[in-house]
């Protein structure tokens, strides 16, 4: 699933291609792709609207339109393509938005988990998300207080989009290793220096991921090379880049979790 750096990369790449384009019509090819509203209302409302920009909130892509906001969550296998309107729809295309320049925006989604919302107020969908980890308004003291109020283990807590928006399996493992914190550590036991170190580590791995256009480890997402710089993620048995100890893999909340037992003691 694309995480914050991958979604940010997609948003940035679409900006020059979509900003200012008018949506002429919509064609829904998989009914359940549309979360809100119904298909008839969706087609009637979105037709004629102009895409003002492309952006991101957490793992959601945001396309502010002239009246509404289009939200897209790619989930496990979603991908967005700009292609010629006359092309026959590909096998796994789920939604087509015809544009005023002879092109279309196509949502391709093999596993059919991706979802689309057309809303007048994006907060109805995004309101429960936690803070953005790269925003300066989230400081070390606030982050420590948020951690210290909870007894949950660090790995599942950082994956919780209501706690912090945008992190997934890759960048959580990478940040915990950089911060030298074990994934099973209780958040309430993290002290202030550790909290500051973890927040800085989260920001460093996300910023590096964005600089490298994300990680291309899934057959769906393409174009980034952050996978060539992983510290621990998917490096089970390989030497830790800090101490040389073989990286270990455990299951935490049914998610594969990679860490160094020496650099990240329990």
Explain what this protein looks like in three dimensions.
By secondary structure, the chain is α+β, with helices and mostly antiparallel strands. The chain folds into two domains: 4-126, Alpha-Beta Barrel (N-terminal domain of MutM-like DNA repair proteins); 140-259, Helicase, Ruva Protein, domain 3 (Orthogonal Bundle), CATH 1.10.8.50. Helices cover 27% and strands 22% of the residues. The protein has helices at residues 4-18, 39-46, 123-126, 140-148, 154-159, 169-179, 192-211; strands at 23-28, 34-36, 55-57, 60-64, 69-73, 78-84, 93-99, 103-109, 115-119, 248-252, 255-259. Strand 7 and strand 8 (103-109) form a beta hairpin. Helix 1 packs across helix 7 (192-211) and helix 4 (140-148) packs across helix 7. The longest helix has 20 residues, at 192-211.
